[in-house]
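Why does residue order matter? Because the sequence determines the fold. Keep that principle in mind as you read this record.
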Amino acid sequence: MNPKVPIATLERLATYLRFLIDLQAMRLETISSTEVERQTGVNAAQFRKDLSYFGEFGKPGVGYNVVELQNRIARILKVDRDQPMIVLGAGNLGSALVGYHGLREHRFQMVGVFDSSPTKIGARLWDHEILDIATLRESNAQLGARIAIVAVPAAVAQSVADEAIASGIKALLNFAPIILRVPNRIVVRNVSFLQELAVLSYYLAVDAQK
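Structure:
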């Protein structure tokens, strides 16, 4: 693993992977970097640079074998194997994430859903029984998840993240509107709908002034 790989490169690799899965479904055998640029919007030179962090890909004059490139990127991102994960918070957002079938397509395996509400604990959510978040350490010892999605209110997000880390979680996808304080060894990715909408709002205003 190359620790110098930029986060933006990893994000684009995920984009390429989605693109390649679609190409395979269309039974296309090869793809060029020029076609990648046309279909994804990522500059062909940037595409080649992103791949160069991980070795040599493709053949001059031939391009990239779709299945081979897809498999190699999947191995790089470690989505060539099941990745057990849990959701912390069974509200509207958590429920939607648990029911999102796209996770399974990329081998992210939902193995547990946790909440603190007595009215939710024990209820069924899709294929899962909602578990008491107070049992997280004991439960995850059996589930073996290393990734957790934090989908709880900001007021409890830090304490929930702390408990998740104590249960063996190594990576957090945080939807709570708060910056989590975690040890350096823990990876956190923050997802902010408000932030993204604010950026869109800004560009709408700029476009209106043209």
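The first helix runs from residue 7 to 25.
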